[in-house]
Amino acid sequence: MKKTTVVLTFFAAAALIGCGSTSDYTPPADASGEQIFSTACTECHKPLKGDVAMILSEKVASKDALKNKFQNGSMRMPAFKNIQGDAADRLADYLLANSEVK
């Protein structure tokens, strides 16, 4: 039992290493929202189907809330501080146009 606890603790710690961290990804100036999503987000957020990138909760289903979420991160999501300005707008617009809200 003790061995199982140690193993589970190790895997839980390994899963949390990225939490609260910051990504140094900087999108190219001409990157579309879809390209930014594909490069920065799909490591954790796999598109659900061709026309649905994500399922968004109502509390992040606005442009400002989305930009705040990906720029500042959260407990489980790293911050993407370098997605700013027009690139941030393009990513937020892409997510709003290509996600379901629940």
Architecture overview:
With 102 residues, the protein is mainly α. The chain has one domain (25-101): Cytochrome Bc1 Complex, Chain D, domain 2. The chain is built from 4 helices and 2 strands. A two-stranded parallel sheet has the order 1-2. Helix 2 (33-41) crosses helix 4 and helix 3 crosses helix 4.
Annotated CATH architecture: Orthogonal Bundle
What's the β-strand tally? 2
Give the strand order of the largest sheet, numbering strands 1, 2, ... along the chain.
1-2
CATH level-4 homologous superfamily: Cytochrome c-like domain
- Mean pLDDT, rounded to whole units? 86
CATH topology: Cytochrome Bc1 Complex, Chain D, domain 2
Key structural traits:
Cytochrome Bc1 Complex, Chain D, domain 2; globular; mainly alpha; two-stranded parallel ribbon; 4 helices; 102 residues
